[in-house]
Amino acid sequence: MGGGNFFYFLSQYLLVAAMPLYILEELHGNERDAGLAMTYFQLGTVLCRPFAGKIIDSLNKHRLLVAGSCAFLLIMTAFFFLRTLPAVFGLRFLHGAIFGVTSTAAAAVAALVLPLSRKGEGIGYFALSTNLAMVVGPLVGLLLMQYWGPSAVFFFLILGALFTLIAMICNALPSSVTRPSASFRSFSVTDLIEPRSVIPSLFGGLVFFSYGGMLTFIPLYARSLC
Asked: Where primarily located (predicted)?
């Protein structure tokens, strides 16, 4: 699960660094377009994440992860061929939607698979995969853009998505973890919003409000200094 989670977040952080430069240099967009690419990704994530928990609990988790990894592969391949601003915005929205479901599913499965005696340790290692992606993704994205261009970026992402899909297919999970634990038939507001999580979520939102803007425009600022 950690490997799949690493790629899900790697694809995000790599594109956060490379996409603004790609839009300005290859698609002849402007800073506003670079910001919109990030906005569409986050919009897809925000719209899907409230439903992600219900989807994960209602479907076979292994099949969901395989389907999500397959969707990632298709989206990364589409980035390679569809090189217009409207296509990029649409793909970023789909990328965010799939990211919202698959990253949540990977975390849920990791928590269910870990033995109770080592759950804290295991979740710590699982979270480390997110931090590694945060460190490696921007570096790889900028290096690929600088020396080989956007085709190398998208080809790298296609390979990563392919390896992730193969890993998810080969990853055998116990039926007690993968089988659905709920049904779509029962649905209420609490399936979308847990009242006790509202206040912590607001604080988290304030922290990441500035974080998203900085991630998008730091590559552009660094480029202007060269």
From this structure: membrane
Cα separation, 189 vs 76, in Å, equals 34
CB-based burial of residue 96 (10 Å sphere; 0-12 exposed, 13-18 middle, 19+ buried)? Answer: buried
Q: pLDDT tens, 128-178?
A: 888 899 889 989 998 999 899 999 999 999 999 999 999 888 877 777 666
Q: Which two tokens stand for residue 67?
A: 């389907």
For residues 156 and 7, the answer to whether their CB atoms sit within 8 Å is no
What CA–CA distances, in Å, run from 19 to 15, 53, 150, 154, 164? Answer: 5, 29, 9, 10, 22
- Asked whether 35 and 176 are in contact (CB, 8 A), the reply is no
Say how many CA atoms lie within 13 Å of 223 toward its Cβ.
18
The answer to whether the beta carbons of residues 40 and 94 sit under 8 Å apart is no
Q: Can you give the pTM of this predicted structure?
A: 0.85
- Which sign, positive or negative, has the C-alpha torsion 33, 34, 37, 42? negative
Torsion angle defined by CA atoms of residues 116, 119, 104 and 41, in that order, rounded to the nearest 10 degrees: 170
Q: 184 pLDDT exceeds 60?
A: no
